[in-house]
Design brief:
The structure is a single chain. The chain has helices at 30-36, 95-98; strands at 3-14, 17-19, 25-28, 43-48, 54-61, 69-72, 84-93, 104-108, 114-119. By secondary structure, the protein is mainly β. It has one domain: Beta Barrel (Barwin-like endoglucanases), CATH 2.40.40. A nine-stranded mixed β-sheet has the order 2-6-3-5-4-7-1-8-9. Strand 8 and strand 9 (114-119) form a beta hairpin. The longest helix has 7 residues, at 30-36. The chain is globular.
C-alpha cells in the first residue's frame, strides 16, 4: 500500500503571466523549483487562493532569476496576473519510507522572492497510536 503525501510547496506564488493559447503547463522560475525540489515536467496541483479553484498540470522551467509563475493553456483559466496561487507536488511512499519524510515548503512575496522556508515537522508514521 502506498500513501500519497506532500513532497513540496510554493506558497502564495503570484501569477506573472497567463497565455491561454500556449500548449499547457505552469512555467516556474527554476530558482524557485530548486528551492523546494520541483522537477521539470513533474505533476503538480495548483490552487488559486482567492477562488479556491484547483487544477492539475505539470512544471515547465522558465528563466532563472525572473520570478516567473505563468499559467499556460487551459491553466490560464485558473487565474489572472496578480492572483496568488499555491503550487504543490506529492509523492507516493511505502509505509516504511514515510517516517522522517519532511516536505520542502517556501512562502513567496508578491515579486515571487522567497520570504521564508517553512520547516514542517517530519512524519512519524510508525509512532502513531
Amino acid at each position: 500500500m502506498r500513501i500519497k503525501v506532500l513532497k513540496c510547496k510554493l506558497h502564495l506564488a503570484t501569477v506573472t503571466r497567463n497565455d491561454l493559447h500556449y500548449h499547457g503547463s505552469l512555467t516556474i522560475d527554476p530558482d524557485l523549483m530548486n528551492a523546494v525540489g520541483l522537477l521539470p515536467y513533474e505533476a503538480i496541483l495548483v490552487s488559486n487562493v482567492a477562488t479556491g479553484l484547483r487544477a492539475e498540470t505539470y512544471v515547465l522551467p522558465g528563466t532563472p532569476g525572473k520570478g516567473q509563475i505563468e499559467l499556460n493553456g487551459a491553466m490560464a483559466r485558473l487565474g489572472a496576473v496578480g492572483d496568488q496561487i499555491i503550487i504543490m507536488a506529492f509523492v507516493d511512499l511505502e509505509p516504511g519510507e514515510i517516517d522522517g519524510h519532511q516536505p520542502r515548503v517556501a512562502t513567496l512575496d508578491a515579486g515571487n522572492r522567497i520570504l521564508e522556508h517553512i520547516d514542517y515537522p517530519p512524519i512519524k508514521y510508525n509512532d502513531r497510536a
